Amino acid sequence: MRLLKKNMPPAAATKLGYTPPDGGWGWAVVLGAFISIGFSYAFPKSLTIYFKEIQEYFSVSYSQIAWVSSVMLASMYAAGPVSSILVNRYGSRPVVMVGGVMVCTGMVLASFGKSIVHLYLCVGVIGGFGLAFNLQPALTIIGTYFQVKRPMANGLAMTGSPVVLFTLAPLNQFLFDSFGWRGSFLILGAIVLNCCVAGSLMRPVNKTAGQKPKTEPAECNGAAAEEAATADTGAQSDNLLTEENQSEGRSQGCVHRFIDVSLFRHRGFLIYLTGNVVMFFGFFAPVVFLAPYAKHQGIDEYSAAFLLSIFALVDMFIRPTTGFLGNSKWIRPRIQYFFSFAVSYNGVCHLLCPLASGYTGLVVYAVFFGLAFGMVSALLFEVLMDLVGSHRFSSAVGLVTIIECGPVLLGPPLSGALVDIFGDYKYMYYACGVFMLVPGIFFFIMHYFNYKRLDEEKRQSMAAEMRTCEETVQLKMSQDEKADG
Amino acid sequence: MTASWKQLFFQILLLVFCRHINTKTPGPTPPPLVADSPLPTDVRSAILKGESHTEKVEVVNPVNLTLECTWAGNRDKQPNITGLWRKDGEEIENSLLMVQLENEQYNLRRVFNIVNEESLGNYSCLFGNEARIDFVLAAPHIGEVRDKPIVGYVGDTAVILCKMEESKPKPSTWNWYRTNGTNKEQILTAAEPHRYKIVNEGEKTKLLVHNLTEADSGSYYCAAVYPIGTTMGHVELKVITFFEPLKPFLAILVEVIILVAAILLYERSRSKKNYAAGNETNDQSNTLTQGENNESEGSSSMRQRKV
Predict the structure, then answer these.
(1) CB–CB contact A183 B156 (8 Å)
(2) Which of B160, B248, B241, B146 lies closest to A177 in space, CA to CA?
(3) Quick one: which of A389, A423, A437, B189 has the most CB atoms within 10 Å?
(4) Is A9 part of the contact surface with chain B (CB cutoff 8 Å)?
(5) pLDDT tens per residue, range B168-196
(6) Which DSSP category does B79 fall into?
């Protein structure tokens, strides 16, 4: 029996139909995803350096120029489903390369811009769509290359965001001093073209190698139970829920062409979606207001900016660490609880922030907030993959991003309004804390029930499988006896 | 005693009329404003603790300014000490006098007529050779002006901004100058309306230079005009052609193309090798799986028999 286990690929991969390599070229793909995800998240944030000069050049108000960032972020999230459809149809590589070329074109056109609307269209819409074509495929391809080491791979890829932001911020300042905003946009267009390099690394995974031999007696040896510790809850649940199997058989054809809307009947997906929609109202606002809050407390501009650097550094190191922890054998089977903990911890952090006094208090807050933010970011897409499985992830992430578009855009302005109304930052922090703590607790409760249901369904289907296995083995035995006799 | 009552009366006057005046020192008297002299008067005082002290005084309108210096003296407190006033390092005529020690302090006071830009400068009161307090009289300094060069492109428009801090008084008007060799020439929009445009908005001013050429590179000065004088801010403009950023753009473009081509070619060569080897391994794996099936069947049947 031990002999069999060694040659046995994990049962959870049955839905994928092949064994993900979990290494080898997969790490090059992680590098490509690192670059793509990094540019997707960091690029809109890093453009804010140019806003002051552009604002004077076009003689517009600050809120009008801030719209460039918002339009870019909105396009990036809204184009999620389009991206998912294209990835389902053509795979990750072409979409990422097209995305890179799109952002480059957008920035080059913007460098010749003669009005602010020109910038909205070129940087905002075209750039945003291009970044969406980078983000979705990068996340999807990790799921195709990794199964056992997937949380680690996800954690490493999501580290791209703070690293690229850290690099782009001083680089943008240098470009601005040397070339002004027009030249900088031109050169940034070229820099962003490196996403095409990332795309070329995203070789489609070889699905013919290591195909699982479909031997039924081998399954019966309890190997399936052994691999439960390392397998997806999602893939297993898809495996075992017979009704879903049937509906998937029907929608298999649709999945490859359009987007999988049957996800809205998926329990785990709905839990994730509702929790995230509430969470994103309070997720980004504290980052935006960290420096202004510090200045409001009387701290000088450079120390306030240093707080953001501390936050980014802590964020950078905690993301791979979270990935590594999520991969460990204690956490992996119950990774949804880890995510719920991270979200709740975020909420607690914000609720305690008004208690922080002076610069040291704010530094402590920045460190803890960096930890919290990094943990949630690293796990954000890993838990979605865990819930719906890698093969449906592409559609899931497209649907999730377009629905999250609203809270992401409304969050910072609403928080800003809170600050303006009360004249004090602490109410904004309380609000953000509540917006993160409530989904965290919601996740804990709902996933507790979800795990119970999944375990029950697994037990039921395993019992059913054992029965069918015993029957086939008895059949074979009787055949052997007949042959002998 | 009566002097301090007068000071208290003026203090009340001050609180009632002039709440926005900001004295930065813990001076003994807040500045009173008396309206019946041709020039307004103002008082600035400083107490010296230590070797020397510098006080910045912002002057906007012509004023009769009284400067007061107070010194606690050193260890051996002499009853008399020489007091002297200096302007910009040069001794002011007839300002030397003997100062008595009153209430354990030495006091120096003098009234100065600050009427024009030449009256501004660095005024110092000296006690003997030991203690000095400096008052730096100047018009409000321009707060926001870019210290690094502004980059503009040939044929494009450049916007140069100078802004006074909102807490400081607004200038009467703004002027713009640019250096022509060593001279500063005022930019007059009337002379070249299609090239220069000046937009003054209270505490900020914008100079727009249209149709840039490389000759437009150089130093520009924005001058905030106050009744007492003007303060200058310096901005540098650098005009470059579009080929400047185009060079790094093309360099990075070439790098991207090379990397993409290298990665794709490497992949193609690997897949050709795998295809050749793949045919062999396919046969091997087929025999392996058959072997596995036989083994599994054998052991499972063995298990069954044991049970």
Answers:
(1) no
(2) B146
(3) A389
(4) no
(5) 888 888 888 888 777 777 777 777 778 88
(6) S
